[in-house]
Amino acid sequence: MPEPEGVIHQLYMERQLPPKVAEVARTQGEDPDRTSLMIEELRDMIYEKGECIPHRIDDDYLVKFLRARFWNVHHAYNLMVRYYAFRESNPEFYENVNPMALRSLGDDDIISISPYRDQEGRRVICFKFGKWRPSKIPIVDLFRATMLLLEVGSLEPQSQVLGGIGIMDLEGLTLNHAWNLTPAVAQKMLALLATSMPLRTSQIHIVNQGWVFDTAFQIFKPLLTDKMRQRLFFHGTDRASLHKYIDPEALPERYGGTKPEYPYTYWLEHLSRDEKVVDELQQLGYVSDPLLED
């Protein structure tokens, strides 16, 4: 699929943060004078406690766990333990998974990720669950695609600092969708979005929700901590409410924004040509041969 002229779907993995992002990082506890010491403290903790065996412990890898927990070494370590426990419990989400095999989620417009950032510099991902057909695409593919996005997003230093934003568009949600939302599924969704990945989901915006969502949300409520609740925002069809948090300049037209919307497939095809990303994903158990399909 040809990429739109003037639009670049790519990751920015330069170590040096843009000045504004570097300032945010400092407010989060990132101190260049202490970075090496804190990385070494985390590395020592991994060796001493032995609760997980990470596939790598180089500085760049450990930094993303530290940034995800605002440079609190103990919290970063606990996150790493949860991350590897989640992977061990759900190998079907990544083992022998070819990212390009997930292109149907883009073809059906279930997931889209903007090449643009919001006013704070954060990535914006849209999930349109009402367009998902459980009989066509198994729910495990939704988890695979979400985990893949988070794994890839965690490679960007800027996203490590700022986190990302999710828009959950529930237009067209039916009871058939709700029946697939078991407590076990809800727990895994929260693990991906809140507790077990080295990338923070800064905000989740719920739009176009109806009575079916109100019913399904009862499954989530008991699982939410106060911190998780503070990241949730409910807008219905009120676009002005959404714009209080995300500038229209970073939103597609369907949400009252100014930008066109691009399918998930653009991201997959670009990432498949990025050797560094391919290598990172291979280390995590993904299959990369062949990445491109006719």
Automatic annotation (TrEMBL):
Pfam families: CRAL_TRIO (PF00650). CDD domains: SEC14 (cd00170). Residues 98-263 form the CRAL-TRIO domain. This is CRAL-TRIO domain-containing protein. SUPFAM superfamilies: CRAL/TRIO domain, CRAL/TRIO N-terminal domain. It comes from Anopheles gambiae. One of its GO terms (molecular function) is phosphatidylinositol bisphosphate binding.
